[in-house]
Amino acid sequence: MLHRVVSATALALAALAACAQAVPAPAAAGAPGIDQRQAAQGQRIDQGAASGQLTRREELRLERQQAHVDRAENRAKADGVVTGQERKRLHAAQDAASADIARQKHDRLRKPASS
Ligand SMILES: [Ca+2]
To answer: Within its chain, how far is the Cα of 71 from the centroid?
Structure first.
């Protein structure tokens, strides 16, 4: 009897551990996916500025957009919990920012070769 209880507990713990590994907690304090995307977007903007695909004006606008997402992230984290809805909103903001970066990098406005 005791053995059965112990093994049921062990099973439950193992299941719990497996869940924790497979699915990130919906209400974790951090937002690692968001941070990763921010770093990636920042690199794309820098790369576009360096290649001349982005004018200085486009670069500044896209950087402001990233700063906006950053502030939204800080607001979401302020109470120590990033809810699923907050995470979803942050990803939507990054989706929009990502599309803007792609658009600005491939439009006809380029940095003049001389500058
Ligand atoms: Ca451009």
So the answer is: 13
